[in-house]
Amino acid sequence: MCEPGEMLALMGPSGSGKSTLLNLLSGRMQMTTSKPAFSVPTTACAANAGRAQLLGTITYNDMPFCKSLKPRIGFVMQDDVLYPHLTVKETLMYAAILRLPKNLSKQEMVNRALEVIHELGLERCQNTIIGGPFLRGVSGGERKRVCMGQEILIDPSLLFLDEPTSGLDSSTALRIVHIMKKISQVGRTVVTTIHQPSSRIYHMFDKLILLSEGQLLYYGKASHAMNYFSSIGFSPQIAMNPADFLLDLASGNVVDMSTPIQLLGQCADYNGARGLHSIDVGSKKNHSNSLQPKYVNQYLSRAYKDMLSKNDALQDEDMGVRTISPYSDTARTSWKASGWKNKSDREWSSTWWCQFCVLYMRGFRERRHEYMSWLRIFQVLASAFIIGCLWWQSNFRTERHLIDQVGLLFFIATFWGFFPLFTALFTFPLERAILAKERACDMYRLSSYFMARTLGDIPLDFCLPLFFHIIVYFMAHLRPSISAFFLTFFTILLSTTASQGMGIAIGALMMDLKKATTLASIVLLTFMLSGGFFVQVYLSRSVQVYLSRFESLVRPTASSSSSSSSLRELQSIPSFIAWIRYISYNYHTFRLLATVQYGHGSQYFNCDTSTGCQKVEEASIFHNISLEGGGTEVLVLLSMIIGYRLIAYVALRRMSLAI
């Protein structure tokens, strides 16, 4: 039991179950009520301890956990999961708007964020970006305080922290724990896991839980822990930090400690039964080095259970849980009056539209640096200039020139088919930790996040294709028409948005960058090869008959063998995979670009030959491409834009977001 105004520390060696217990207490690892017990996997001690069983119930003021309790609970993760390009002030302000009650005005929410900045001593760095591994920003201690500030914003009754001092120097760690102590002194309950605190940090804790391999070795006041272990025969023989003594004891390392004679006797009996070298119990020599850790842990766990049994406070003999008297009716009524209700329905702090607007603006501010980076701009502009030089002032006077210009159109379709795909591929795998963290505390709806994340990229994605299009279009001397210029740009935008959707869908399905990159490479290669330029597709039997009759009418001198030969040239892809072109956005983009450039008007080539001019539609490269219409291709690309994003949303919905 941990009461308001107290700070409880969970200590133990790695793999002892600290984080598992913290997740259970905070409601992040749900208990099933259909069975009296359920199994939860341990962490590093899984090989030794197998699966730990949880018996009993966890209650908050004598009431079970429910979704409406989440706004009363704050959870600070061990890793500092923050957006690196946002400032400290922006990070806390966006969190305040998303998490504070919707009956507050925006100015009140902003004022609350400023109060937290002052409370945590972040005034000096409030306009500094958070930073990341390769981006200079705030220090590690300041970053940890920002994470704490995101939870303090909602004024939680319970605050859980997972290794808040991990990776910090002793001075910064002391400052962090001092802030935690101040938080508990204003009436909040603070529960934290901590690995190896200094002596000054240890004496700040009110209560202590000591764990070892999932077993409870001690629960009570932190100041009484040394006296308890001394009473059962364990005491340090040299001056040492109490936390170091307790961690060594929980690890089974009793070097430089006095050990009870009963433990030595039990080890001697066990070794003698197995025919091993026995321990001389009556010797004055310290046999701490000969004790195996598992014997020490078993003895400590059994001693604590015996102590509980003697005090007549045992609730479960296997787990050693104290009988906790329920809260008084006055305390329960007071908490209910403060806004907590025992119901399972989730209550959102803000409306869907408010969440969408805030997430849209936050995402735009975060990603504008990535999209508008000089490296990215240089990559697109350099590619455009190289392409413009290679196809400088192209034309289609002859069929060979026409094929070269059509190759340019296919390259444009391919370039804006793979470039946005691999950019969007990293969207959700890189933001998985942030999404999981914010969804775990019900900060926003998944649908509002997905729409803001998807639509927020579109304005940024318009800039680079526009620069690319202007350079290539005029350098390559494509169709000199205003309508053709804008329709070509519209087609590029459709291709860009469709390929983005494919990248988002693959990233959301895989959630692993190596697997996603491999799958995207295969898909992109398949779409490119079936795009309608490198190889042609099978023609149906009816189309073959129609073409043979048409060819015999317009070319009566042509032999049947040459007609059959020309048809066989079109049959390059086996019929059982010819359908792939219909799901390739490269295929539809290429057809649409060709229609814009050469369709909807009479254009001719080979005008300098003796046979006269030929229509572009009659060129051999367009035997399988219709240059009329274009509406079908637009509808197909629009359906891909929507369909790929629906796949990504369903994948995110089905994904487990628990950390």
UniProtKB/TrEMBL annotation:
Top-level taxonomic group: Eukaryota
Q: Which Gene3D superfamilies does the record cross-reference, listed alphabetically?
A: P-loop containing nucleotide triphosphate hydrolases
User: Transmembrane residues, as ranges?
Assistant: 374-394, 406-430, 450-476, 482-506, 518-539
Where located? Membrane
Q: Name one GO molecular function term.
A: ATP hydrolysis activity
What the entry lists under CDD domains is as follows: ABCG_EPDR
Instruction: Decide whether keyword Transmembrane helix is in the record.
Output: yes
Keywords recorded for this protein, A-Z: ATP-binding, Chloroplast, Membrane, Nucleotide-binding, Plastid, Transmembrane, Transmembrane helix, Transport
Matching entries from Pfam families are given as: ABC2_membrane, ABC_tran
GO cellular component terms, A-Z: membrane
Domain ABC transporter span(s) in chain numbering: 1-238
Q: How does it sit in the membrane?
A: Multi-pass membrane protein
Under InterPro entries, the record lists: AAA+_ATPase (IPR003593), ABC2_TM (IPR013525), ABC_transporter-like_ATP-bd (IPR003439), ABC_transporter-like_CS (IPR017871), ABCG_transporters (IPR050352), P-loop_NTPase (IPR027417)
**Mostly located where?**
membrane
PANTHER family, per database record:
ABC TRANSPORTER G FAMILY MEMBER 22, ABC TRANSPORTER G FAMILY MEMBER 28
This protein is called: ABC transporter domain-containing protein
